[in-house]
Every structure is written in C-alpha cells, then in structure tokens.
Design a protein that fits this description.
- By secondary structure, the chain is mainly alpha-helical.
- The chain has helices at about 5-10, 70-100, 105-130, 135-160, 180-190, 200-215, 220-225, 230-255, 290-300, 305-310, 315-320, 330-340, 350-355, 360-390, 395-425, 425-445, 445-450, 555-570, 570-580, 590-605, 605-615, 640-665; strands at about 490-495, 500, 510-515, 515-525, 540-545, 620-625, 630-635.
- Among the domains are: about 60-160 and about 195-265 and about 275-320, MFS general substrate transporter like domains (Growth Hormone, Chain: A, Up-down Bundle); about 325-455 and about 550-670, Growth Hormone, Chain: A (Up-down Bundle), CATH 1.20.1250.
- It contains 22 helices and 7 strands.
- This is Solute carrier organic anion transporter family member.
Amino acid sequence: GIENPAFEAPGAVLGRHCYSGPANSGADAAAPDGPGPDPDPDPGPDPEEGPCGWGSCSPRALQLCNNPEGYLAAYSLLAIFQGIVVNGLVNISISTIEKRYELNSSFTGLISASYDISFCLLSLFVSYLGERGHKPRWLAFSAFMLGLGSLVFSLPHFSSGKYQYGGSKFEDTCQTAGTTFANATCSASTNSSLHKYLYIFVLAQLLLGVGGTPLYTLGTAFIDDSVPKHMSSLYIGIGYAMSLLGPAIGYVLGGQLLNIYIDIQMPKRQDTTYTKVDQDDPHWLGAWWIGFLACFFAIWLLIIPFSCFPKHLPGTAKIQAEKISETHDDGSQVLVQANNIGQSFKDFPMALMILLRNPVLMSLIVASSSEALVATGFATFLPKFIENQFGKTSSFSATLGGLVLIPGAALGQVISGVLVSKCKMSCKGIIKFMISTCSVALILNTVFLFAKCGNEPFAGVSETYNGTGTLYNLRAPCNANCKCSRSMYYPVCGSDQVQYFSPCFAGCASYVVNNMKKTYHNCSCIGKAKREKGSEDFLSEAVPGKCPTQCKVLPVFLTFFFFAVVFTFMATTPTTVAILRCVPDKQRSFALGVQLVFLRLLGTIPGPILFGVAIDKSCTLWDINECEIKGACWVYDNERMAFSLMGISAACKIITIIFVVMAVHFYKPPPLTKALPRKTSEQISVV
C-alpha cells in the first residue's frame, strides 16, 4: 500500500513527506511547526515509484505498462481467470464430480463453501498486512496460489483411474422379469473409496480462497491508489466488469468440455442395440478436469507481470497529494494518525475496532451483504428456476442464465462507474445514487408476480395416470409389474402430452432407434393422444425429454430480470468507492477486507443455502434411491418457487435500501475538505 515511506526507508525520505499533523486538521499542508515547511503542492517523486522490471533489469519496453492502464490490464486478466475457475468451472463441474466420486450434495456443498471459508479466515489478515506491503507482489502470490489450486483440483482425475462406464446396467424400459439390484447398489455405495477425494477438492478450494483474498482487497485498493479520485470509480468498475467475464467464459468453456468424454477416449457400450453414447445417456460424464489444467498454466504466466510492477506506480505521490479527504468525521482519522496505527501487527485489534465503530462503513457493509445474498442465490439457482419454470433443458437454462446474469452485472458496474466518474460525485452523493438504483431494482423484482408458469401435466405428480392412480405416487396399475427405479430420472413425453418420470414408469416395453434417436413404444400407461381424435392407428409412444411447455412468458421474464440485474449491480462499484472514501486513509485496504468477510458471512455463504431451502420447500417429488434414502428433487411447484424467490429478493432489497439510507444519515464529511487537499505523506497513505 502507499503508506508513509518513512516506515519503509528511514532517512531516505524527503522532509516534505514527513508527518505534519492530523489528517483532518484542514491546514496540515501549511503547518508552520511541521518538519516539512515546504508549501509546494508538488510533493516530488516517491522513492518507491520505481521502474517496471526485476531489480536492475528494467527493459524499456516494460515501461510502457508501468502505468494504471497496464496494471488494470494485468488485474483484469487475473480476475477473469479467477472467475473462470472459482465461479465457472467449479460450479459447472459439481454435478459431474458428484457422480464420478459418489458424493452426496452435502459433501459437494462443503466443496463449494471451502473457498469462502478460506477467504473469510484470511481476508482480514491479508488486507491488514498487505496495507504496508508491496501490493503487486501480493498479487503475484495470488496468481501462484490460484494456479496451484487449479492444479490440485484436477489431480483426482489422474489418481482415480479410468471411469468404469456402465458398471451397473441401466434398463430404461419396463422389465417384468429379473431381480432388482437395490442391495448391490447399497453395498457398492457404502464400500466405495472414491469419497476420499473429497478432501483433495476441499484442499484445492482452500488454496483458491488463499489466492483470491489479495485480489479483491489489495488489488482493488492499488487501483484507487494510482488514479485521481474522480477516475477511481471508472477503473474499479472496469476491473469488476472484467471479473464477471470469468464466470461467463467458465460456463461456456466448461459446458463445451463436458461434451467430451471424461477419459477422452470413449469406450463402447456393451448394449449392441444402442451403440451411440451421448450426453443423454444417464452414465455419461464429461471431461470436467481439462479446464482446471489449462487454467493452471495460464494463471501461472500472470506471475511474471505482477512481479515486475514497482511498489507505487509513477505519479502516485502527486495524485494522492491532490486528493481531498472525505473520511467520515468521527475522529477516526485523527486517532489513526496520532497513534500511527497500522505500523505493526499489534495494532490489529485497535484498527479493527475503529472500522467496526464506523456507522457509515457498517451500514454500507450490511447493505452490500444483503445484495450479495440475492446475487449469489440467483447465480446458483437461476438456471434451475428457468429449467423448471419454463420447461427448458439444463444446458439451455444454464446458457440463458449466464446470458442474463453476466452481461447484466457487467453492464451495471460499468454504467455506475462511468456515472460516478463523469458526475464527480461526492461520497454522500454516491450513497444517494445507490438508493435510487436499489429502488428501481426492487420495482423490477415484481417480474416474478406475472412472468411465471404453472406446472405441465406430470403422471403421478399432477396427473393420475388417466384416473387409475393417485397423486404424488409414481406407481399405478399400468406399471405395477415393471421393476422401475425411482433413482434414475429419465423423463419422457408421452403421445398424450403428459410427462412421465421414465420410460419404465410410462410402461414402455420396447423402443426403436432412428437416426440415433430413441422412440419408446407399447407404453401401457399412455392414453390416446389428445389431438388424435380417437384414431385407432395411433400407438402409445413416448420420446425422451420433457414435454414442450405451453408457457410463453420466458422472453418477458428474461427482459425484466436482465434490467433488475443491471440496476442491482449498479450499486456494486459505488459501494466500493464509498467504502474507500469514508474510512481513514491508512485503513482502506483493511476496510475492503472487513467488507469481504461480512460479505461472505452474511451474503455469499448463506445466500445459496437460503435459496436452496426455499426451493426445496416447493418440491413435490423427491428422488428416493434404491436404499430408500431421499436425494435430489425431481419436480417442483412452480408458483410456490416463484413466490418464494421473489419474497427473499424483495426482503433483501428492502434491507439494502434501509441501510443505505442509514449510511446517508450517519455520514458527516470532514470540515474544510472542499478547499484544502491532502499533502502530507501520512495522508498519502493507502487508498
């Protein structure tokens, strides 16, 4: 960070860089009794504003990157790759990892949470210690750990052997003879040794958390250090927007890699009647590990540019001297200056208490945590919502979700960054701007009220097998003799426009393959097609997949939700800028660390859990495996799901607005800052 250079190189600092009074005095630059009487507003070059390079090796070509734009480019690349791995590849690979290593959802939930756990444990200490350190080298360390975490995450594939495709035969049609395999399945699941790889995945996520911690604390603060105040929001907005490209690329890349067989060379299935093996096969697993291995090499290459940046970019001291303090006037700036808080680790408790007692900071932190809860909840479950609400496939729903969330979030952060920069908003003006964006997002959130769909007919859930069965019971007289497994969800759409859990539960006795597409025939549970006017030539048949939905409001939902995302994320960059401005100069990186800890404890960790519980409450058909253990949910009550998600989102946005209003109420600008810039090195402290 840009702390007092005297702390780093005693005796090598010009007199005018020395401490000359409290930062809030309003006249510190001209204090007659200070050790630096020079009134020249130009503080001169900072001895730590060195050239770009490694020691004495400073190639002239590298100096073209020794500026805020060059640093922003490197920062953006690292943020993109961090997003690809943590928020893209990990999320899209979780379901494949569950199947490959026989892990239940609670274990994969632990894998997902391990990143945030590591981040929470280290964020305060890294941001506090890095405050006085060499921030670009901290980001080189970040790149090293992110690359190492990516490598470790891919290791289970190389040590677990070949995937035994089709180890247990899956019969999707009605089998009236033979024995069930429940006991074998239970035994195999109980005695499996694949679950031991859980610890490797958790370790990899912990390493990724270590690598991500400096990126969004010290890395962001370094941007604010190096650019004029009115440009800070623009640069930070661009950096945050670039970080959102990572998940988008990760989803696209991961989705394409899952189209490749997990062991690259695909074995042939023993079932000679159906040799085509594709993603529709229940046993298919994609090559989830390739993306992690590629990111390992790419991220480690970024160690090179970060290791060559100087501690301060050229011109930083002059930029900081011209900045006007907007620290919340609660005496914390004077306290930090008078006690030189931040010089050693023993000051950590007092530094933390100063921030926790700042009502403006804490109000902004709670508001941002509430927004993060909603954002991470929708990032996790929006594809599932689209899939169930509008009857789309999982891959198409994930694509739609990414097309709405990622561009909307990036656009919102860039727009807000530009507006704050061009309008040169004050700290109080920025907070008021956040109130307006959150209010518009709350209004757009009502899209869940009118852009929702009812459930399509589903035999055994909302239909009763033509009156022969009962609701919420997949069994009926028409499939009573079929040995069907409830653990293998393979939906088919009958010729009667009713969806069935699987060909077996539809009573289908046979199938034919045309152009590698299955069509099931002789389905005893399927009645005559509703559109066939009693034709006797029509056979009871079914095709794989869900029945086409009759709901046509998906474009309306996506349009309104896109703008809701835009206005939601228009508060992200202003929140960061307001936090950087309302705390003492020497505590800005530390303030971001405190914010990110609360952001995870109150937002990103409980967010997916709360959304998951709300969605599970709307479940109408659970998976019951061969061991009679309840697993995932197959069918949801669409209206209940829509109202639940809208309720959570609306409640969180109301909480956000309340705390942002409180931040405006509590904020008190320091006196005389409208006319007097900061000029002492103590005020040139970390941004």
